[in-house]
Amino acid sequence: MAIKEFIQLWVGKWFSLRSIYFLDTAKTENNQAEIIVEMLSDDLQELVELLPTQQIPTNAIVAGMKFSWDNSVDWDQPRQIGSNILVLIADRENSQKGTFLRKMGTEEIKTGSYVLAKDEALTLTIDNGAGYWQERIWYASDNLRLRQTLLKQGEDFKIAGFYSEIRKIQPLQ
Predict the structure, then answer these.
(1) 163 contact partners, CB below 8 Å, separation of at least 6
(2) From 152's CA, which of 41, 96, 128, 133 has a CA 20 to 30 Å away?
(3) What is the pTM of this model?
(4) SS3 state of residue 103
């Protein structure tokens, strides 16, 4: 699968079930949310504002995406809504790997690397030297996406998470 095909599968409205494990405290959280993934065009304001700070030509961009979430479907939890922007920038020789920019709300822009492996799983990694955050994303089918996350600080893994996400499809009319 090419990176652009993988990204096209990402687009849509998803129902997400998440389990987070705090490994240093042995606590667990389980949540539900609705996630909307949209492709951004090169002239969209969020993308235009992000790129000049990084000096990246728009022709190097594989995709710009906006992720929005709302956990109001999870009745047991306080409501959380938010969004972030993810921009994938291809390596010059191989678009299956490269770098990415992620901006969440008012936080500073995070830079990381991505690789779409032969097993058709996309791995995103942000390494700050003292540890790293890593997310692995793959599809069991076009309408079932799975994600696994890890946060390592120093020598210890602090957080592990698993997500199963089902595409919300419009009923036939």
Answers:
(1) 16, 17, 18, 19, 145, 146, 147, 148, 149
(2) 96
(3) 0.87
(4) strand
